[in-house]
Amino acid sequence: MSWRLFRLSALSVLCVLALWAIVTEGGWIDRRFLPSPTDIAVQAAVLVGQGYIGTPLHSHLLASLARTFVGFAVGASIAVPLGLAIGYSERLHALITPFLAALRPIPVIAYIPLVILWFGIGEFSKILLISLTSFLYVTVNAAAGVRSVSADLIRAAQSLGVSERQLFMHVILPESLPYIFAGLRIGAAVSWAVVVAAELVAAQSGLGYMIMDAATFFRIPVVYVGIMLIGLIGFAIERVIAALERRFVHWGNR
Amino acid sequence: MPGAEHARIQVERLSHRYSRNAETVSALEDVSLAIAPGELVSIVGPSGCGKTTLLSIVAGFIPPTAGEVRVAGAPVSGPGRDRGVVFQSFALFNWLTVQENVEFGPRMRGVRVAERRERSDQLLALVGLTRFRNRFPYELSGGMKQRAAIARALANDPEILLMDEPFGALDAQSREMMQEELVRIWQSSGKTILFVTHSIDEAIYLSSRVVVFTFRPGRVKHVLQVDFTGDRFDPHIRTGRDFIRAKASILDMVREETLKQFSAESQA
User: Fold this and answer.
1) CA–centroid distance for A83 within its chain
2) What is the pLDDT of residues B171-214, one digit of tens each?
3) Is A148 in the B-facing interface, judged by CB distances under 8 Å?
4) To the nearest whole number, what is the mean pLDDT of chain B?
């Protein structure tokens, strides 16, 4: 983005912030429902300094991040090999695709009541939900990646004398990487959304829990700070994976 | 059949049918062709004449419905590194540098680093890509990509090079440059080359023989001996009298087949 356009973006953000400050500080909107930017900034400073009712902010944050990370790691590490296998074998594709197709349109948060019923409200339930989320996105993308490998590319490799195993490891796998990374990126973003949703319903820690608890006791600025933190961290997660993507699939989309 | 017993590529009574939309399409019918070692033979014909199918069968990508292809006397049963293939789509490995692409074949069969580096250095010099050895394919122009693909196909030192419209995706100028390049590579390497193209001009310029195919089912309509080997690097060769005469006769034949293609498509 050029400097001119960047300035335009900055100006636009400042205007909205100013408008927000005016309508809230000026009393047009009830600050109990929409706190002013300064209210939120002050609340953020308090949370960082003192934590939320005795628990430091970073431990809520870490609780959410740890669940996401573990769930995502479990889901993705099953999904990548399975997705590659489904993409490679038409039979396996026929066997497994109906279930993936049935599960994929269902938002994972719809399972929260069932998962609580089966496994209670412990860590396992939340990690299960996140694993399932990332699993679905990554599997489908990895399979699509394998299927996107062009016939010419496979034929070129075969004419160069590769074995079946070499074809898979040295041609199909790298050629599928852009798709796999796209799946990881979306999977991680949705997992982060799901962890917060799960914590809203049933948790004793985490950003979702903090927001829900604060809303129950009408500590509205805390709710806003929590929401903004979720946004910031979601953004950071996406940036981290995008950086990994640039590092490992430099040829993607070209 | 000229020198059938010494042929590098022997295509014998080859037929190929496949079904499309519950309809059987006969792509090739009773095609026989013998290509001598060191020959460069082009196949021309309208789209749907089965020329790419023939090349795919020789490469071992698809089995024929009937007939047989023998390479140096042995029947073809699948793809193999004795037959290097060059595609219109380049089919380069985007995650590897140009040099790594060239070394792919030797690396897969376990050739030592020093040895395959030496070989790839030679080939990169041959195709004029030495300065671009550390670039990735997506950083190259179309002509450079195809030169890299040719070097990659030559890295296993195959006796045969199969080329499927290799210059079809290039602009007219790079196309002529690549044709000259190919003649140079062909003359210095002594490979047997089977070359499929739409371009009659290209076929006459490159080949020792031009095979004209009929439209569906693909049969050998005519084989024309055209040897412009002596003066291929003369820039005016393509406008010389003999060249134009050869071009006119092939043009008539291809046109006849293209009209069949058109009427078949307008009936469909």
Assistant:
1) 19
2) 888 888 889 889 888 988 889 999 999 898 899 888 889 998 88
3) no
4) 88
Neighbours of A8 (CB within 10 A): 12
pLDDT for B27-55, tens place per residue? 888 989 999 999 999 999 887 778 899 99
Fold for domain A35-248? MetI-like fold (1.10.3720)
Between CA A149 and CA A158 the distance in angstroms is: 14
Residue B94 distance to chain A (closest CA, Å): 6
Among the partner residues A150, A159, A177, nearest to B85 by beta-carbon distance:
A159
What stretch(es) of chain B map to CATH 3.40.50.300? 4-82+158-237+245-267
Q: Which residues of B touch A254 (CB under 8 A)?
A: 94, 138
Cβ A183 vs Cβ A137: under 8 Å: yes
Average pLDDT taken over every residue of chain A = 92
Q: Are B182 and B206 in contact (CB under 8 A)?
A: yes
pLDDT in tens, A150-170: 999 999 999 999 999 999 999
CB pair distance less than 8 Å for B91 and A249: no
> Which CATH number is associated with domain B4-82+158-237+245-267?
3.40.50.300
